């Protein structure tokens, strides 16, 4: 049984109606005021209605997206999500459990159906509908006939949850559950909706596709990831979402660079920068760091430094309040880590750079929710120090990296550990390095 959100209902009823003196604010009034707040704060028209507020009060939706929560707090005059009954009770760990246990905790997103679903690999995709042709519906009755803001919110919530899980735990462990969610929510693309909701649902499903593709990338399932990234790209192109397009193209670039195809990665990054005037400072910084990483892999020293400089300049003009929600991860720590990874390759090639300082900044700045990024920067710093600096110091840094990365479900993080073991092999005669290599072997095994 869903638990009603009495905190939200009470908070609404404690606010007097502007339209009818002497009675509480109605659900529709609350929706109208939230829409007005969102228009003022985001510049975008939203279509929340009394039905959506009813879903919140009945507990159908327990964790709205962050902009909706902020607007509700502002309109109702409260200082925290808990005061109006919003608690993020969803956990991807539950999604990885047997279907019966998961379905009991997530009835409104049909988690049991998700876990039964086996995602079938798809070929090259040119439009969102192409994926739908490959993904047969679970049952005809499962596909919604019409979608609204509440449905869009569910997709966004699923995407946010996957992104958060990937940052803190890695993507390899829950990849199949992620694809099952994408399989079901992709059906929303063919449902009827208003023009505004059509844009929102394509963007939300595209964001979920991107998050799912990144899970596959983290598991080194490269072909699967590439196909799904292209699905997300098609969603962004369908509704001309330049911001989502930039994010997906950045991820396509990074995967190709990671796979040893820096030339193709450079092409994707530069494609995303064709209309850089439409992007925020954070997005331009993200794309210039991707260019820098590709150029460094190609040994193009001067161009790499110029790309890092362009990234630094763009990040200096970043205004987080102008960024789309999915760019919240790109803070000073992320920027330092990304540019540090690019300069790592130049340092290994014998050039003098500030890669170590940037990696240290990333390690110090990443919070626990970005455990994967912190662990990978820690591992890179250990490899860099092992290759170009004091192996005793590198061993100490490496032992911390093993502890951090060893807790993740990320094949990319494991590949970085294997690289560190190779660099440590040059100093295998040192006791501290021998201990590090032993720990690395045990962890990788």
Automatic annotation (TrEMBL):
<dbReference type="InterPro" id="IPR011990">
    <property type="entry name" value="TPR-like_helical_dom_sf"/>
</dbReference>
<feature type="compositionally biased region" description="Basic and acidic residues">
    <location>
        <begin position="1"/>
        <end position="16"/>
    </location>
</feature>
<protein>
    <recommendedName>
        <fullName>Helix-turn-helix protein</fullName>
    </recommendedName>
</protein>
<feature type="region of interest" description="Disordered">
    <location>
        <begin position="1"/>
        <end position="23"/>
    </location>
</feature>
């Amino acid at each position: 049984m869903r638990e009603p959100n009495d905190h939200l209902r009470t908070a609404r009823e404690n606010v007097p109606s502007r339209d009818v003196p002497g009675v509480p604010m109605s659900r529709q009034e609350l929706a109208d005021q939230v829409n007005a707040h969102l228009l003022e704060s985001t510049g975008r028209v939203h279509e929340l209605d009394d039905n959506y507020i009813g879903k919140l009060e009945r507990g159908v939706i327990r964790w709205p997206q962050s902009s909706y929560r902020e607007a509700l707090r502002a309109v109702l005059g409260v200082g925290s999500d808990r005061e109006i009954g919003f608690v993020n009770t969803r956990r991807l760990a539950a999604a990885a459990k047997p279907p019966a246990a998961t379905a009991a905790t997530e009835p409104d997103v049909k988690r049991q159906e998700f876990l039964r679903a086996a995602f079938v690999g798809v070929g090259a995709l040119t439009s969102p509908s192409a994926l739908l042709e490959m993904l047969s519906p679970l049952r005809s009755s499962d596909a919604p006939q019409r979608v609204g803001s509440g449905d869009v919110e569910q997709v966004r919530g699923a995407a946010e949850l996957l992104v958060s899980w990937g940052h803190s735990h890695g993507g390899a462990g829950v990849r199949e559950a992620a694809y099952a969610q994408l399989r079901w929510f992709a059906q929303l693309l063919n449902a009827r909706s208003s023009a505004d909701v059509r844009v929102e649902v394509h963007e939300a499903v595209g964001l979920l596709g991107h998050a799912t593709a990144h899970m596959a990338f983290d598991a080194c399932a490269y072909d699967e990831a590439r196909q799904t990234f292209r699905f997300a790209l098609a969603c962004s192109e369908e509704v001309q979402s330049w911001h989502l397009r930039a994010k997906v193209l950045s991820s396509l670039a990074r995967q190709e660079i990671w796979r040893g195809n820096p030339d193709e990665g450079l092409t994707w990054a530069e494609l995303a920068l064709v209309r850089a005037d439409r992007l925020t400072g954070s997005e331009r910084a993200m794309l210039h760091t991707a260019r820098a990483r590709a150029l460094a892999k190609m040994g193009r020293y001067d161009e790499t430094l110029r790309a890092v400089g362009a990234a630094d300049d763009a990040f200096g003009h970043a205004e987080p309040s102008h960024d789309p929600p999915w760019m919240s991860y790109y803070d000073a720590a992320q920027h330092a880590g990304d540019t540090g990874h690019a300069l790592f390759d130049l340092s290994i090639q014998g050039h003098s750079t500030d890669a170590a300082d940037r990696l240290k900044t990333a390690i110090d700045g990443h919070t626990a929710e970005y455990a994967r990024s912190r662990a990978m920067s820690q591992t890179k710093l250990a490899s860099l120090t092992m290759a170009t600096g004091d192996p005793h110091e590198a061993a100490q840094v490496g032992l911390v990296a093993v502890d951090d990365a060893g807790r993740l479900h990320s094949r990319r993080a494991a590949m970085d550990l294997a690289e560190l073991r190779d660099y440590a092999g040059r100093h295998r005669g040192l006791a501290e390095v021998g201990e590090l290599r032993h720990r690395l072997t045990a962890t990788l095994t």
